[in-house]
Amino acid sequence: MAVPETSKPSLEDLDPDFRGVGISPVPRQRFEQYSHAWRALRYRNFRLLFIGQGISLIGSWVTRVATSWLVYKLTHSALLLGWIGFTTAMPVFLLSPLAGVWVDKVHDKRRLTAITQVILALTSFALAGLALSRHVTIAEIFLLNTVKGVANAFDMPARQTFVTRTVDNREVLGNAIALNSSIVNIARLLGPSIAGAIMAFSSEGWCFLIDGISYIAVLWSLFAMHFTPGERVAQRPVSVVQQMRQGWTYVAGTVPFRNILTLFAILSLLGIPYTILMPIFASTVLHGGPQTLGLLLGAPGVGALLSGLSLALRKSSVGLVRSVALSSTLFGLALVAFGFSHQLYLSLILLFFVGFGMMQSMAASSTILQTLTDEDMRGRVMSYYIMAMTGMLPFGTLLAGWIAHRYTAAIAVIFSGFAVLLATAWFWSQYRTTQENAKSMMRNLGLLPSDRVSV
């Protein structure tokens, strides 16, 4: 017997927040057809995190662009651009395993996240004061970026694990991560453009001040959330070293985790550091200024944003291992082509594909790790993910800066692209084993129907 049309759940039935918004019948049908793309936003806590973090991340990108431009303006040195990236990311590499243990032990992750956000805000205000007073020096920039790196070592795994609490549903987790990636890339799109406009008419100091103020939004969102008090799980007294060893054994012994983290450690070392060379491309290769730099950093953001939205449209995590391999291949090919480009419009098109491939692989990997990880290991697994993604950057930025200094920025980027392609070729060689193990883990968690053959 046919089911009456009126028995289908409406958008208002799925989420009372949409009642009374006056959506006409045809748009309503299309809206409901794709409503799975934003199902994580039905959770109030995730909505708050989505808004607050989005505003703060725009400010963070404004500061990132302003810092790289200020360093290059003061020194005209590709090598020092590499060193400034080193001082920001090196603490993440050194402290991430310890931070992962700490995050797993801390019951109130919201408080931990708030503390790290306050520290990051203070460093931005300090940079703003120094830059606006025109007394800023390279040494002070290095010191404050090191402080940021230490705070990020604890903030990043805490925020990654905090996302799981805002949705409290493993089946919706992939969508939450995809939407979270989308807001990261909206910030990556808007932040460089805002920074370029501010620096064109004023100075870098105002960029740092705006970033400091933007942290108020994420702090507000954290304290506006409501959580049901959870039970504190009694833990056996285990030393920090033993817990770090347990985390390493868990990651190294899980094939999908091991292969994905190895791939992205190589990509972060040899591929992603291309971003620190953008001031050189903007000024020397393309003969532009701050506005050109904003465009070069914004183009990957457009690609990354569309990449995040495409992941949000997925109804499950099936097929993500293949997505990691394909998107990493696209990342490498586009990066090589960008290195040969001397035309602004062509460079922007190629950077669009660089951003799409890079973010698709990053978000797909994060979704796989978050979905398959045991809850009591989540902090440690994500700390190794962050160590692979961010902790390898200091060595990569130094290498990219040295190659650009010794040869040219174009040669450095072409080298990076070929390195990404070699790493991806290795991952393709491990693809079948990675896929089969991920499929088995998803089936054990009840996330994969028995008739599914690929992950």
UniProtKB/TrEMBL annotation:
Its main location: membrane. Residues 40-435 form the Major facilitator superfamily (MFS) profile domain. The keyword Membrane applies. Pfam families: MFS_3. One of its GO terms (molecular function) is transmembrane transporter activity. CDD domains: MFS_MefA_like. InterPro entries: MFS_dom, MFS_trans_sf, TM_effector. It is found in: Cell membrane. GO terms for cellular component: plasma membrane. SUPFAM superfamilies: MFS general substrate transporter (SSF103473). It is a multi-pass membrane protein. Keywords: Cell membrane, Membrane, Transmembrane, Transmembrane helix, Transport. The chain crosses the membrane at residues 48-72, 78-102, 114-133, 208-227, 260-281, 293-313, 320-340, 346-369, 381-403, 409-429. This is Putative transporter. It comes from Granulicella sibirica.
